[in-house]
């Protein structure tokens, strides 16, 4: 790719791409296209939760809290991001998430490969209490 510069607003760009600002899913001619890393600006209203657990994940992820209270659920434990700048790094584990308050997170995941997207996202079939217990 030739030299390129892109400027934008996460608040404006992210909604059109399910929150993602950079990754394999951007067109090949877009400077934001990457097979190495994905970056997400996630805005989650209070009570928002992932519709399905991510299973069989092999990539590494970093989630940083910008604002709010955001819980990540793993089969063996729960991690609460409660203070601005709190973060968690994980790799190769099943996971889900729940926004305890309106939250903004930055997600970084690598490498950037297809898969793991929830198609036609619907509200989760399980409530948050079920997720905390680790039910699938």
Number of individual domains: 1
Overall pLDDT metric: 84
Q: Quickly count the helices.
A: 2
Radius of gyration: 15 Å
SSE sequence, one letter per element? HEEEEEEEEH
The CATH homologous superfamily is termed Jelly Rolls
Beta fraction? 25-35%
Number of strands: 8
Largest beta sheet: strand ordering? 1-2-8-3-6
Instruction: Please write the CATH class name.
Output: Mainly Beta
Q: Main beta sheet: strand number and arrangement?
A: 5 strands, antiparallel
In short:
The protein has 136 residues and is mainly beta. 7% of the residues lie in helices and 33% in strands.
Verbal overview:
The chain has 136 residues and is mainly beta. It has a single domain (10-132), classed as Jelly Rolls (Sandwich), CATH 2.60.120. The chain is 7% helix and 33% strand. The protein contains two helices and eight strands. The chain has helices at residues 10-13, 128-132; strands spanning 20-22, 38-44, 60-67, 70-74, 78-81, 87-91, 95-99, 103-110. A five-stranded antiparallel beta sheet has the order 1-2-8-3-6. Strands 5-4-7 form a three-stranded antiparallel beta sheet. Strand 4 and strand 5 (78-81) form a beta hairpin. It is globular and about 45 Å long.
């Amino acid at each position: 790719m030739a030299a390129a510069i892109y400027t934008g607003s996460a608040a404006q760009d992210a909604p059109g791409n399910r929150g993602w600002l950079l990754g394999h899913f951007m067109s090949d001619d877009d400077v934001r296209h990457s097979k190495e890393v994905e970056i997400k600006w996630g805005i989650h209203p209070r009570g928002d939760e992932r519709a399905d657990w991510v299973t069989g994940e092999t990539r590494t992820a970093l989630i940083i809290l910008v604002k709010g209270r955001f819980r990540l659920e793993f089969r063996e434990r729960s991690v609460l991001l409660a203070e601005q700048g709190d973060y968690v790094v994980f790799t190769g584990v099943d996971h889900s998430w729940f926004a305890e308050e309106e939250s903004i997170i930055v997600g970084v995941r690598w490498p950037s490969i297809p898969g793991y997207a929830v198609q036609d996202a619907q509200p989760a079939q399980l409530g948050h209490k079920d997720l905390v217990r680790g039910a699938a």
